[in-house]
UniProtKB/TrEMBL annotation:
One of its GO terms (molecular function) is voltage-gated chloride channel activity. It comes from Oikopleura dioica. It comes from the Eukaryota. It is found in: Endosome membrane; Membrane. This is Chloride channel protein.
Length: 769
């Protein structure tokens, strides 16, 4: 991938004397422009793509502006203007439909490991909740039977053994099938997909990563991976699924099929739809696309992302995959207010979330590097199977790890009331002072009972196990999301911290700081709220998300009252995480995979320090710089075509920059000329000027190529700070930049040059530290 990069314009070891001197000539704008396709693992040229779209848009408007223009041109203008909105509507609908299928399948597979629905009509396709709709609770449900009961086990030991065996068997089977789908059918279906989608949106080309095969493979493999019980989630991969839908639908419209930059606007809207269906948070999805994944996000993309996210949420709501009128399993609603003294508890939760995020990112990247350098890289399928075996064996004995992580989060988020008093986590020791409630929905509070102590121990063990399993699991060759495992860890320690604060306030409610709010017979401090804040803080610590995360959590609860606690915890978690490193887990995996993603630049170098050739390399000269006075043989141009393009200078002596020629455009233009004229041969002289010399008798025809000359390439001075150069690359989306001194060409900077330079500086600073 590195050797044939289209960003490589100059050789770093030796520059030959091949040169072409060109006379300056204006580019002929009326001639048709060749359309070169981007090769795999290369970067697009945003300016070039947006310029192509402006030319296309102008042509359509001019064709429809005249009163005498046919009706077809006017309709074409209307269709072109509406095509963007049509595409995002279709993307939202497709994303909602795919998410509904994934949600329903995942829930059924997760429950199938523990039992089966054996109703009167043999409704085995129903999950546990659907099977027990007619019962008051799953405990009183007779239609749902565990595997031990199905096999007729009579003793507790035999019931436990049968359930344990089937849990491990189905978990390993699902994981093996999932890994086989990824290995043999859809290799790009592995991972969460967010780092790759983020890189693609920055302009990188990965052919097939958003293809139909990847979409189908991810939709089949994702429910199996989550249903196998692995410590991963489906929310992150749903962004990848939505992006695949967006790519497939956008390619149906020529406006987006032939323009990579315009297609990426649709992919930004698709990413918003993915988060919308993952968390039931349309507004949070739009902000996620803006804050986390998008590279180029104009205002119209914001509106279209909003429409796509809204449509996706509506379609998923119509499907109603969970049967509870909500879009996610862990939707919660709180009625109790929070009090000012709880800010300290929220800050503590945020600190722990930031520490966990820094620890997890460090350990996961270390393990992924170990996996790449060890023999595990040669046996990815067996690694998945062994991970499934270990996960199933370790998770089944603990009640809190046996259930799906989304169910565990839902349980931790909920408020303890009289209806939940029988559950261990809510089994308080009640007395007459704290039982003065009218409704069964009121929050209860009391002393710690043996059942609650047992639940605390189980939750602590579950948290430690999930931390280890998530570090190992995130990165194996299956679809794997990180949102749910991170939220699970945060929800557990958040719930436990909230329980501790609740008990402290209960025992010292006579203190003046508590008496006004939590006096005798009053209830306050909801541990479920702390679980939600803890989930947000860990997710912020791992991904470094802030604004979009707060909005997502708000949409999960539907209460503006808890915005401040969420903001305090997420901001604290980000500050703590940034103290150990400013990069989130997705940025770290982008670096791990060596994707060309440009981020912040914190060094004080100049453009001449990064360009090639360097000022100190006086013995080197440019390869492929066109500097022959009038022309060059086509045969010689083909020899230097492995480079992305060629700067055009006025003459050998002055090196004044005239323009830039893209090699793919050059090859396409030459092929077209050969098809149009039989006189064009490999010995023909190629001219980039409008005026050409008189052709002598017996000479091959002249190849006129002035229409492919870019006479306005982006250029900077050799003393321009690299921080400004990086911003030019990021904001304009260019692939290369000419470096000049008093108008004379000194060198070229490419995206790869900047990435290599940053890597060298980071390596040097790491050694000195």
């Amino acid at each position: 991938m590195e050797s044939d990069s289209d960003d490589q314009l100059l050789e770093s070891d030796r520059f030959s004397d091949l040169a072409i001197e060109m006379s300056f000539s204006n580019n002929s704008q009326n001639q048709p422009q060749p359309r070169a396709k981007y090769r795999n693992y290369h970067s697009i040229d945003w300016l070039r793509e947006l310029s192509k779209d402006k030319i296309r848009h102008t042509r359509i408007n001019r064709a429809a502006a005249s009163r005498s223009s046919p009706t077809k041109d006017k309709i074409n203008k209307i269709v072109d203007a509406a095509s963007g909105w049509i595409v995002v509507l279709l993307i939202g609908a497709a994303s909602g439909l795919c998410a509904g299928v994934v949600d329903v399948t995942t829930k059924w597979l997760a429950d199938f490991k523990r039992g089966i629905c054996t109703g009167e009509h043999g409704s085995f396709w129903l999950n546990q909740e659907q099977c027990c709709w007619t019962a008051y609770s799953t405990e009183n449900c007779t239609d749902w039977r565990k595997w031990g009961e199905v096999f007729g086990a009579s003793t507790d030991a035999s019931l436990f053994t049968a359930d344990y065996f089937m849990y491990v068997l189905f978990g390993v089977t699902m994981g093996a099938i999932c890994a086989a789908i990824v290995k043999y059918f859809s290799p790009y279906a592995t991972g969460s997909g967010i780092p790759e989608v983020k890189t693609i949106l920055s302009g990188f080309v990965i052919h097939g990563y958003l293809g139909i095969c990847t979409l189908l493979g991810k939709m089949f493999a994702l429910p199996l991976a989550v249903g196998a019980g692995l410590s991963l989630g489906k929310e992150g991969p749903l962004v990848h699924v939505a992006s695949c839908c967006g790519n497939a639908i956008a390619r149906l419209f020529p406006k987006y099929k032939h323009n990579q930059a315009k297609r990426r606007e649709m992919l930004s809207a698709a990413a918003a739809a993915g988060v919308s269906v993952a968390f039931g948070a349309p507004i949070g999805g739009v902000l996620f696309s803006l804050e986390e994944v998008s590279y180029y996000f104009p205002l119209k993309t914001l509106y279209r992302s909003f429409l796509s996210a809204m449509t996706a949420a509506f379609v998923l709501r119509s499907i109603n995959p969970f049967g509870n009128e909500h879009l996610v399993m862990f939707y919660s609603h709180y009625d109790e207010p929070w009090y000012w003294f709880e800010i300290i508890g929220f800050i503590v939760v945020g600190i722990l979330g930031g520490l966990y995020g820094a620890f997890f990112n460090k350990m996961n990247i270390m393990y992924c590097k170990f996996r790449k350098s060890s023999k595990l890289a040669d046996w990815p399928y067996l690694e998945v199977v062994f991970t499934c075996v270990a996960t199933a064996i370790l998770c089944f004995p603990n009640f809190y790890t046996q259930m799906a992580q989304s169910d565990l989060i839902a349980m931790l988020f909920k408020t303890c009331n009289y209806e939940r008093w029988e559950e261990d986590i809510c089994h308080y020791t009640l007395n007459s002072n704290n039982t003065k409630h009218i409704s069964a929905d009121d929050m209860i509070i009391g002393g710690l009972s043996p059942e609650i102590v047992r639940s605390i121990v189980g939750l602590l063990l579950a948290m430690l196990l999930y931390i280890v399993l998530t570090i190992v699991t995130f990165g194996i060759k299956v679809p794997s999301g990180l949102f749910i495992p991170s939220m699970t860890v945060g929800a557990i320690f958040g719930r436990l911290i909230g329980l501790g604060i609740q008990q402290f306030v209960l025992n010292f409610n006579h203190w003046s700081v508590f008496s006004s709010y939590c006096g005798e017979g009053q209830v306050c401090v909801n541990p479920g709220l702390y679980a939600m804040v803890g989930a947000a803080s860990t997710l912020s610590g791992v991904t470094r998300m802030t604004v979009s995360l707060v909005v997502i959590m708000y949409e999960l609860t539907g209460g503006l009252l808890y915005i401040v606690p969420l903001m305090v915890a997420t901001m604290t978690a980000k500050w703590i995480g940034d103290a150990f490193g400013h990069e989130g887990i997705y940025d770290l995996h982008i670096k791990l995979n060596n994707y060309p993603f440009l981020d912040n630049y914190n060094y004080s170098n100049l453009a001449c320090d990064v360009m090639r050739p360097r000022p100190e390399d006086h013995s080197q000269s440019f390869v492929g710089v066109i500097r022959i006075q009038y022309s060059i043989k086509i045969e010689e141009m083909i020899k230097i075509s492995p480079y992305h393009g060629f700067p055009v200078v006025l003459s050998r002596s002055c090196m004044r920059l005239i323009g830039f020629v893209v090699s793919q455009d050059l090859q396409i233009a030459i092929d077209e000329l050969r098809m149009q004229s039989q006189g064009i041969t490999s010995q023909s002289m190629a001219h980039f000027t409008d005026t050409v010399p008189i052709q002598k008798p017996g000479e091959p025809s002249i190849a006129r190529l002035s229409h492919i000359l870019d006479i306005a390439p982006v250029n900077v001075s050799d003393v321009t700070p690299m921080a400004l150069v990086l911003e030019i690359f990021r904001k304009l989306g260019i692939r290369h930049c000419m470096v000049l001194r008093h108008g004379k060409l000194q060198g070229i900077i490419t995206r790869k040059d900047i990435l290599y330079h940053i890597a060298r500086l980071n390596s040097y600073s790491g050694q000195t530290d």
